[in-house]
Write a structure and sequence with these properties.
Structural class: alpha/beta
Number of domains: 2
Strand order of the largest sheet: 3-4-5-2-6-7-1-8
Order of helices and strands: HEHEHHEEEHEHEHEHHEEEEHEHHEHEEH
Largest sheet: 8 strands, mixed
Helix content: 25-40%
Mean pLDDT: 86
CATH topology of the largest domain: Rossmann fold
Shape: elongated
Distance between the termini: 105 Å
């Protein structure tokens, strides 16, 4: 008589992006993840935890590879720790959802009070707990230990308790954090607010030195393709550029303001979206490239200002209100169709883009298809940047707060530093700042001293009392 086999489903999520997948599949013994808000780090660790608990190979999902035995690995004992009940609840919801059928069938036992899922008669277990220091973490051990919001924990959680509990089985530790901000200082239990940052830097150095036991990941909020523009808008609402750098871009360098190229941009010039009137003149800026083309649409303010316009906006100021960065795989005709859609209902005064020396043929191609683009008036990159900074210093350039690509690049674009950490006049990784290339080329057509475009001054009625 054949033994009856009970088959139950495991409802695992699928990674939402290559970046999340790479973390889930990582097998290094020490993994440090620096991630922006809403990247999906809790969900990613829950997938990793369930696979470890069930003994499913993280690299091949059970199909067989050089890391496993025909898709199986030794089932693990998993401990997840976070300093807030909110984070614990999210992780607990994810693992309970994934293992629901197994729990309902009696294959696994769930303790809702203690936040434990276990296989009876074994040491296989997933446990989630609120912990922020050594005392709150004591009394357990694990093969896979995950620290979430590690920047808010006291260092002794790892130093005094975490490390010893992994010794028996040479277990894996995962540290997940978002760069600390002033906002988080009041709830942090850390002695050194930058201890998570220093751990990341240490891990990065070990990784670069060839130590296979260490692996680092850097994910921004943009790496989550399931987030809508509206969601990102709500997430970054009322954030300063510094908070935006840390919490959305997950940038964690201890930088001086002078190292940022566009440090003259002020938070008051990041404004809530309002309707741009159809009679405002419009200029578009373009950056060419088959892999990373980009475009920026800017309007110049006229009177009367519309409802919802920011209080500081003046006649002649400039407002960026559309951005375009589609990625690779589109023709010039497809780009032009999108340009026309973005500027529908507006009068485009000028389109500027590229450089004078070697991108004339690209401009000719766009012109032949009905979208003429002029070369910038100023050719040197630093001269173009100087024009942009001039606008920013006078608060004459505003950006809608849902234009995340432009804002992100302004917040992260830095000068190359010399051996004494002083700024040079060269931009670090300059080719990757495509939206800023659009901005600095188009600004060469702006007049930063007088409130009008080059075609002339609008007539303004003035009442004399």
């Amino acid at each position: 008589m054949e033994e009856e086999v009970l088959q139950v489903n495991v409802n695992l999520r699928i990674a939402h992006s290559p970046e999340q997948k790479a973390f889930i599949e990582c097998t290094a013994l020490r993994q440090v993840i620096r991630a922006g808000r809403r990247f999906g780090k809790t969900v990613a660790f829950s997938i990793k935890a369930v696979k470890a608990f069930l003994g499913i190979c993280p690299k091949c999902d059970g199909t067989g590879c050089d890391y496993c035995d025909l898709g199986k690995v030794t089932p693990k004992r998993v401990l997840y720790a976070a300093p807030t009940a909110e984070q614990v609840s999210k992780f607990w919801f994810e693992v309970c959802t994934a293992l629901k059928d197994c729990i309902d069938a009696g294959v696994l036992r769930k303790d809702e009070t203690e936040k434990i899922i276990e296989r009876p008669g074994t040491e296989q277990r997933i446990k989630a707990k609120t912990a922020w220091n050594a005392n709150t973490l004591r009394g357990d051990y694990a093969d896979l230990l995950g620290f979430e919001e590690y920047q808010l924990m006291n260092e002794d959680a790892w130093d005094e308790v975490g490390q010893p509990m992994l010794l028996d089985n040479n277990g894996t530790a995962v540290f997940i954090y978002t760069p600390p901000s002033l906002k988080s200082e009041g709830v942090s239990k850390a002695r050194d607010p930058r201890h998570a940052t220093k751990l990341y830097q240490k891990a990065k150095q070990k990784e670069e030195d060839g130590d296979k036991n260490w692996k680092t990941f850097h994910f921004t909020s943009y790496h989550n393709p399931t987030l809508s523009t509206e969601a990102l808008g709500m997430l970054s609402e009322d954030m300063s550029l510094e908070a935006f750098r840390r919490e959305i871009l997950a940038e964690d360098d201890e930088i001086q303001l002078s190292w940022l190229v566009y440090n003259a941009f002020k938070d008051i010039c990041k404004v809530k979206r309002f309707e741009i009137p159809s009679n405002w003149p419009v200029i578009t800026g373009h950056d060419f490239g088959s892999a990373n083309p980009a475009a920026l649409v800017v309007a110049q303010a006229k009177l009367p200002l519309p409802e919802g316009a920011p209080a500081g906006l003046r006649y002649g100021d400039y407002v960026g209100f559309r951005e375009y960065s589609p990625g690779a795989g589109f023709s010039s005709l497809q780009h032009i169709e999108k340009f026309r859609d973005m500027t529908k209902g507006y009068g485009v005064e000028q389109s500027i883009g590229g450089n004078i020396t070697n991108e004339g043929e690209i401009r000719q191609l766009y012109g032949a298809h009905g979208w003429p683009i002029s070369a910038p008036i100023l050719t040197r990159v630093n001269a173009q940047i100087d024009r942009v900074i001039g606008l920013m210093e006078m608060n004459k350039f505003y950006i809608m707060d849902d234009m995340f690509r432009v804002l992100g690049q302004i917040a992260s674009c830095m000068w190359i530093l010399d051996s004494e950490n002083k700024s040079t006049n060269k931009i670090k990784d300059e080719p990757k700042y495509h939206m800023l290339a659009c901005l600095r080329t188009m600004v060469t057509y702006f007049n930063v001293d007088r409130p009008f475009l080059k075609q002339g001054v609008d007539k303004v009625k003035v009442s004399i009392w």
